[in-house]
Design brief:
- The protein is mainly α and 306 residues long.
- The protein has ten helices and no strands.
- Helix 4 packs antiparallel against helix 5 and helix 8 packs across helix 9.
C-alpha cells in the first residue's frame, strides 16, 4: 500500500492464516487436559440420568483431572489430541486467520471497522470454520468423552477408526452432527473472543496503557477468555452433549437443551464453567501471544531475511 513504511507493513493473509493454525495447535497442546476435564463435567449429569446413578464421579477441575489419571491413566487426558490438532489447523486458521481479511471485506478495504463490522466478521469466519472442521470436532469430543471399559476396550481405537465408525454407523451426516449448535456457539465465541481481544488491545494502545508487546497481548487475551466463557458456556454444553449423544437420543439441539432444563435445571448450562474458563482463558493467552509473535517474527524475517 502507498505511504506505508516497511516497519508498518501488516503480515499477509497467508501468514495470518497459517500462523493462527499453528498458534491454535500450540495452545491445544498446553491446555488439552483442561478441555478433557470440561467435556467430562459437561456430560456428567447426562450420564447420571441415563444410568440412574446418584454419586458424582467428577468434582471440580483438578478433581476431574486427578480422577481420570487415577482410573484411566494420564494418557487419557490427551484422548482426541490428534483430532484436536487437525481441528485447530483447519478451524483456527479460518476463524482467526481470516478475521482481519473479513473485516476489510465488509469495510471495502478501509481500516475503519466499527463494532458491527467486527461482529459480522467474527460471525462469518466462525461459521466458515465450523462448516469446514466439524468432523474433527465431533471426533475430538467423542474421544474426550469415552471412558475405558472394564475389559479395557474403548469406543474408538484410533482417530481414523473414529472417522470410519461414525461414518459407517451414523452415515456421513454423523460427522457433521451438531453442526448448527456448533455454528451458533462459534458465532458467539468468535464475536466474544476476537472482538473483545481486538477492542481491548486497541483501547490499551490508544490510551498508552501499554505498548504493543507481551503484557498488552496477555491482558487482552485474558479479557477475551473470560467474556467468551461467560457468553458461550450454555451453547457449549448443549453442543458437547448433542455431539456425543447416541443416535436418536435427542431429536435436535433444541430438544437436547429442553431435556437438560427439564432433568437438571438451568444451572446445567454452566456445568464445567471453571474448567471452561481455565481452558479458554489459558488457551486464549497462549494462542494470542503465540499468534502475535508468529506474525511479528514473519514480518521481521520478510523485511530482513538475512
Amino acid at each position: 500500500m502507498v505511504g506505508i513504511k516497511p516497519k508498518d507493513a501488516v503480515p499477509s493473509a497467508a501468514i495470518k492464516f497459517f500462523g493462527a493454525g499453528t498458534a491454535g495447535c500450540v495452545a491445544d497442546l498446553i491446555t488439552f487436559p483442561l478441555d478433557t476435564a470440561k467435556v467430562r463435567l459437561q456430560l456428567q449429569g447426562e450420564s447420571q440420568n441415563i444410568k440412574g446413578a446418584s454419586a458424582l464421579k467428577y468434582r471440580g477441575v483438578f478433581g476431574t483431572i486427578t480422577t481420570i489419571v487415577r482410573t484411566e491413566g494420564s494418557r487419557s487426558l490427551y484422548n482426541g489430541l490428534v483430532a484436536g490438532l487437525q481441528r485447530q489447523m483447519s478451524f483456527a486458521s479460518v476463524r482467526i486467520g481470516l478475521y482481519d481479511s473479513m473485516k476489510q471485506f465488509y469495510t471495502r478495504g478501509t481500516d475503519s471497522a466499527g463494532i458491527v463490522t467486527r461482529l459480522l466478521a467474527g460471525c462469518t469466519t466462525g461459521a466458515m470454520a465450523v462448516a469446514l472442521a466439524q468432523p474433527t470436532d465431533v471426533v475430538k469430543v467423542r474421544f474426550q468423552a469415552q471412558v475405558r471399559l472394564p475389559d479395557g476396550g474403548r469406543r474408538y481405537n484410533s482417530t481414523l477408526d473414529a472417522y470410519k465408525t461414525i461414518a459407517r454407523d451414523e452415515g456421513v451426516r454423523g460427522l457433521w452432527k451438531g453442526c448448527m449448535p456448533n455454528i451458533t456457539r462459534n458465532a458467539i465465541v468468535n464475536c466474544a473472543e476476537l472482538v473483545t481481544y481486538d477492542i481491548t488491545k486497541e483501547l490499551i494502545l490508544k490510551y498508552d496503557l501499554m505498548t504493543d508487546n507481551l503484557p498488552c497481548h496477555f491482558t487482552a487475551a485474558f479479557s477475551a477468555g473470560f467474556c467468551t466463557t461467560l457468553v458461550a458456556s450454555p451453547v457449549d454444553v448443549v453442543k458437547t452433549r448433542y455431539m456425543n449423544s447416541a443416535d436418536g437420543q435427542y431429536r435436535s439441539s433444541i430438544n437436547c437443551a429442553l431435556t437438560m432444563v427439564r432433568n437438571e435445571g438451568l444451572t446445567a448450562f454452566y456445568k464445567g464453567f471453571m474448567p471452561s474458563f481455565l481452558r479458554l482463558g489459558s488457551w486464549n493467552i497462549v494462542m494470542f501471544v503465540t499468534y502475535e509473535q508468529i506474525k511479528r517474527g514473519a514480518q521481521q524475517y520478510w523485511e530482513s531475511p538475512f
